[in-house]
Amino acid sequence: MRPVQAVVDKSLAADIRPGAAVRLTGVWHSSSSSSKPPPSVESQGGKLARSSVAGQPNSSDVHEQEAAVHSAGADQGLAPTTAELRVSEVEILGSSDPQTYPIQNKYQTPESLRAISHLRPRTPINSTLLRLRSDAMALLSQFFFQERFQQTHPPIITSSDCEGAGEAFTVKSGGTTEFFRDPKYLTVSSQLHLEALAQALGNVWTLSPTFRAEQSDTSRHLSEFYMLEAEMSFVQDMDEVMDLAQRMLASLASGLKRLSAAQELEKHRLDSRDPAERLAFEDLVDPKELQQRWRGLTSPKRWPRVTYTEAIEILQPVAHMFEHKPVWGSGLQSEHEKYLAEKIGYDEETDAFLPIFVTQYPQEIKAFYMLQSESPPPQGQTVDCFDLLVPNLGELAGGSMREHRLAQLEDNLRLHGLEVPTQRKARSNDMGWYLDLRRWGCPPHGGFGLGFDRLLSYLTGVPNVRDVVPFPRHFERCDC
Amino acid sequence: MRPVQAVVDKSLAADIRPGAAVRLTGVWHSSSSSSKPPPSVESQGGKLARSSVAGQPNSSDVHEQEAAVHSAGADQGLAPTTAELRVSEVEILGSSDPQTYPIQNKYQTPESLRAISHLRPRTPINSTLLRLRSDAMALLSQFFFQERFQQTHPPIITSSDCEGAGEAFTVKSGGTTEFFRDPKYLTVSSQLHLEALAQALGNVWTLSPTFRAEQSDTSRHLSEFYMLEAEMSFVQDMDEVMDLAQRMLASLASGLKRLSAAQELEKHRLDSRDPAERLAFEDLVDPKELQQRWRGLTSPKRWPRVTYTEAIEILQPVAHMFEHKPVWGSGLQSEHEKYLAEKIGYDEETDAFLPIFVTQYPQEIKAFYMLQSESPPPQGQTVDCFDLLVPNLGELAGGSMREHRLAQLEDNLRLHGLEVPTQRKARSNDMGWYLDLRRWGCPPHGGFGLGFDRLLSYLTGVPNVRDVVPFPRHFERCDC
Questions:
Q1: Per the database record, which ranges form the Aminoacyl-transfer RNA synthetases class-II family profile domain (chains A, B) (predicted)?
Q2: Is this prediction's pTM over 0.95?
């Protein structure tokens, strides 16, 4: 993320323009602090070409530096770099017309950068966000490998719509007849297929694209997003599933702290002297709150677990604070979730926000596949499920134990007003195959799904999920 | 993959039926070779419940074993196991009706198992294939992390159809108007988007679902498949791209050899005495040929690289062997590719099949974005591209240098009869954004795409790609 300082003789510097891709050959010199720009740089009309280096020097004797010059800023305000490249040779690999280059040498709003998503990752912050995304994928892969979870590729084109809730996209081919005989959809959740795989492979996970045709225009929703889903087999106690979620997130956050992208985001925010960049950092969540989030994620303390019924009891005395009244039997509103996360999750001792688990919601407001709780409260029947809540964002993940007994699952379908497929239709375009999983040896099992983009937004303090994915897709927007 | 031998007293064994999920508690005993089944097992009507263990014992003092009993076979022919579990307690976690359980206690054809894709992974071979798939994902993630490539999530819903070739699926929402304003498609290749990301992040890669609405009913095609794509920035020599492809595949194959799934597939094939399983192994490629493949993939030798023009010269003297005449200017047919792979790739010294690179194809039969060769042969203009060919399967991967100069790319579009978008339309539903990448600092770059399912098919010797994915989708088939 940091710029590289290159000292280039005037005679060589003419074609180094903002946006250009150049190869600079030279020798690294450690430079002492100097606020006076070297003469060769002054020759560019008072501008210093700051290179967003596409390849990092991998040893101290690097003598060739390839870079795409993605932005140029006035030098006077920049922090001294610890090394500079004294350039003896310049090769322009890809020229650039600075008059038309859309990434201007000044602050640009996130909204305006979204209109040029094919160029947006060239800005230092956006580039670093995508590198952090990459680091997160590598760390999750390592985590689950060590935990002996099998990574799987559940299908993207599916017959069913997981919870009957999401509006699914339809998949069509150019032909006159249905390509797959029946109408097919883009997956809204991999859970049902993961359950099939967990029966065979033991614990499984996936990080897969997921789709919802919702027209909601919020900072938390995308039409195409990545879900991290895990399913544990032979598990009877939901605490084990919540333990996994905490262990995974703690491992991820600790791992990220050791890698460069997260480190750079944190440090560079403090030492950047480029006014445009400082303004861009202002768009992110306050650094103090960000640190509270990270301390909570990596805390050795067990994250708080309260039941939905307890949560309602916490909310009711402060009902006046909310637009919606907290009532047992209704879903928690976003305002309720945020209050709970801040109230219950804040750990004074370490000044940290611990994510909180809210468990055992009323059966009627949750999905049909969830297992009934053994000891429901007097208010009504609940299911063994949990939502993982964090301040500001609300729900980060949701999970449950799954009803693994055939008769009870069929009852649940009826209770939710859904059709109970017969065994004869098992392979047709309905849920027969999912019931099949209960017919022959279904152990108790459970799992969770976590919005990966939302998690990255929480980790980086980027307020809008559209800015942590390379090419955001949402209602009326699908550029490139 | 191997069965676990459990000795269960008659009084406890009544409900242990094929397909059931059970928890067995007991003590491990090392058992000496014995072809005589223990009395407790005889009590199940001469059948031994062989457990496909869902969790592996992780130390020698494991005393609790959870398993899904997915198949039962006559014991008499089984190899002695090295340890057996003397069971003191049996808990049926999920019962099973053996009368209706679709996975029969005999050989079932791959085709018949495909009709029950939600249960298929319960068979030992299919389970092991999916574990190998998982191992491969973890190893690739590690490889690219070490090579400092950034893993990316290019979009699945896109505006463009990569090569104008593939028939793309259309994405629709339930509403009356277009959800994204313009018609959108499921991606047929992530390459163009990877190029945008490579400009910003340096070297990038992805393992993403990819879609083609082709009606071809072959053992090598799926409508939904996974492509491993890598794009290298600041690369001027295509040899570097081919070096990466070889290094990656060698690293993957070496890594797999150290992990259990690949080891089990190889060993169990030799020592399985279960007649049904031996027949299932017969469906795979001959073990000798499989070893030749693996020796080639992990060979320290540089894989052969021949130009298309040289390939035609090799093919022409043996033209009588082919249905299609090898002619300069026409594409290589599958029969040509297989001949070349076997002829050029076979390394006598090590009895190995080295994959081969065929490079510099005629420009007219390749995609518009490929870079013209600097020294084309007298026969006509060629481009800097390569196909990676292996015996039996043909093309495993394809790559190229990309035309990084704007004017030449526009010429290429015209040459291929494609519309050249103007800059004004850059953000609309055409290729304007892709041309934009050449306007402002486009370094020389190149990359490749590899069919991940096809690779797994090559590695495991499974003849049909439909059997290395959990839920295959192809023309008229999209079960579950």
A1: 130-470
A2: no
